[in-house]
C-alpha cells in the first residue's frame, strides 16, 4: 500500500530535474534468464521523473532469437549493450545499471567504454574483480546446504551429455522462492513464462578489468536484504572484495527489486543520479585490450 501511495504522489508532484546532473539517461541491463521486460516498472518511474530509460535484450535473452546454447563468449552475449553505448553521441554519458549476471556485463562495458559511463550501479549483481568469473561468486565452498540456487539450476547439454553444459535453466517450481519471494503474483507469472535459458560459457569467462578504464567509472552497489539467490552473505563478500564508492540498502527486497520494491529502487536510483560529480581530472586512457578493440571494430563495420 505504501509503495502504491508513493507512486501516486510521485506522478502528481514530480519536481524538475536539477541542471547539474552528470546524466539524465539510465541504461538498464537485465540479469540471467531475464530480458528488457523485467524493467517495465523502473522504465515508467524513470520516465515520469524526467529521465531517459533505455534497456537491451542481451544476446539470446528476451525477444532476441539467438539460441542461448550457441553463445560461447561474453563479448557475444553483451554485444547489444556495447552497440548501444558505441552509438551514443560523443558528449553523452549514461548511468549504467546491472542486475544479477548483468553486473558482469556492465563491468565488461565499463572496460570497453569508460568515457561514456559516468556511474555504474550494481543491483544485487555480479560485481566481479579483475580476473574473476561471474560463476566464481557461487563457488561451492560459499554455498550452504540451505541455499536454493543449486537445487533450482538445471544444466542443458545441447552438444550431448558427455560435453560441457551449454546453458542452464531454472526449475519453474522453485523460481518464486528463489528470485521472487517478495514479488507480486502477476510479476511472478510474467517471469515464469518469460525466463529463458542462460548461456553457460559467458559465466565462465574471466574478465580483464583495468584500473585505468573500468576503475575510472564510479561504482555503487544496492543490497537486497531478503534475497534468496544472491544472498546477503554473498553480497557482502562481493562488496568487501571489490569495494564500490557507496553501498545502499534496499530493505524487504527479494532478488528482483524491480518487481518487489520498484519505488524504493527508483528512489535509490534518483539519489545516485544526484550525487555530485567528482572534481574533473583528465588522465589519458590507455587503448582497450586487443579483445575489446576487436569488438569495437566489428561493431563499426
User: How many helical stretches?
Assistant: 12
Q: pLDDT under 50 segments (min length 5)?
A: 1-14, 296-301
Shape: globular
Helix/strand/pairing category: alpha/beta
Largest sheet: 6 strands, parallel
Average per-residue pLDDT, rounded, comes to 90
CATH architecture: 3-Layer(aba) Sandwich
What is the ordering of alpha helices and beta strands?
HEHEHHEHEHEEHHEEHEHHH
Report on the architecture of this protein.
The N terminus and C terminus are likely disordered. The protein is globular. The chain has one domain: Rossmann fold (3-Layer(aba) Sandwich), CATH 3.40.50.1820. A six-stranded parallel beta sheet has the order 2-1-3-4-8-9, sandwiched between helices. It is α/β, with parallel strands linked by helices. It has twelve helices and nine strands. Helix 2 packs across helix 11.
Please specify the SSE layout and strand pairing:
Elements: H1 2-12, E1 25-29, H2 40-48, E2 52-56, H3 74-77, H4 79-86, E3 94-100, H5 102-112, E4 117-125, H6 149-152, E5 153-156, E6 167-170, H7 175-179, H8 185-194, E7 198-199, E8 218-224, H9 232-241, E9 246-250, H10 257-260, H11 262-273, H12 290-300
Parallel strand pairs: 1-2, 1-3, 3-4, 4-8, 8-9
Antiparallel strand pairs: 5-6, 6-7
Helix pairs in contact: 2-11
